[in-house]
Amino acid sequence: MSDRPAWGEAPPEHPDGVLRPRPEDPGVVEAYLPAPAVQNHAASLTVLPDGALGCVWFGGTQEGVPDISIWFSRLAPGAAAWEPPVRLSDDPTRSEQNPLLFPTPAGDLWLLYTAQRAGDQDTAEVRLRVSRDGGQSWDGPRTLFPAGPEGGVFIRQPPVVLPSGRWLLPIFRCVPVPGARWTGERDTSSVLISDDAGASWRERPVPESTGQVHMNVLPLADGTLVALFRSRWADSVYRAVSLDDGESWTPPTPTELPNNNSSLQCAVLADGRLALVFNHSSAADATARRVSLYDEIDEAGRAGEAGPPAAEPAGRAFWGAPRAPLTLAISPDGGLSWPLRRDLETGDGHCLTNNSRDRLNRELSYPTIRQTPDGALHIAFTYWRQTVKYVRLPPDWVDGPATAGRAG
């Protein structure tokens, strides 16, 4: 009988970034990245030009507080540990969130991230910094996509470069509700298209996408673009398709996979299959719900205590469904079916609070996934909002035994 707590194993108080084999799971290596702040969340992995892995995330006191900044760490080829993180943003007036690293075809490295006032995502803008030496130094930040009367601009998934040379950047619009603070109730998805290597952009909205966000664009071998979405309704992972390089999209429709109004990420594997990491849970698994993501943040961005969970908050957006387990699913048919699913990490996923100061949050969330030329899968994710956990899987791990009750 295990002596672990019912909600899973707590992260180390002083994570060191050292790679260690996972007990009882041969071939799997894991590490807890050094945690530069009280709260660490929303990791994104990228293979850097020199073959190193780069990981960015945001850290500070609590999401929505102005001390939230972007942090960056590297895992050099053959290294035994992740390097100490460095801070890449520091705007004392805004919460800087959801960073992405994008190695451009020309050899530059872009850092994209959002910046918002307090918990008001409808004020968010997308900012850019560029490195021309693989992340060793960076130019100054500039606003690439400002907020406007129609609301804030948010990102989560990386840009995609198509065979034609076209760039696609998935965004979602954080639409304000007059007289109320943002809750995500009216958010919609779009792709920004650039045919001149990022010099100019135009927007193509996804029809009927209200509530479907974090659009993850996946180019298939036949030229089809598949997009997977997080759902504000905490019901299902949604899917849409484009047959014209992102100019138009089908309306998103639910897949067989659940979603809990939390992020997911998918990669196209070398063999053409899709590998998706997500929380295998939904509103149906919730024991309570929150009013919003920022119900512990006041209008000045000060963190306090959440009020009692709401039985039925106004609006359809559902916050508070468990952010666990963290599951890897495989699709052989472009996301139409997901016959193989395995849990990477389990726990109760408690996220009715974002409080990391008192270690109250226990979510396993916001995964990011990449495959390297050797076939290995690299995954990083939020571990209790205290640190970022990294896991490297051998190629055949995805074909291992399905988690009981999770097979399609």
TrEMBL record:
It is an enzyme of class 3 (hydrolase). GO terms for molecular function: exo-alpha-sialidase activity. Residues 51-379 form the Sialidase domain. Its EC number is 3.2.1.18. Residues 11-25 have a biased composition (Basic and acidic residues). Residues 1-26 are annotated as: Disordered. Keywords: Glycosidase, Hydrolase. SUPFAM superfamilies: Sialidases. This is Exo-alpha-sialidase. It comes from Streptomyces millisiae. The lineage of its organism: Bacteria, Bacillati, Actinomycetota, Actinomycetes, Kitasatosporales.
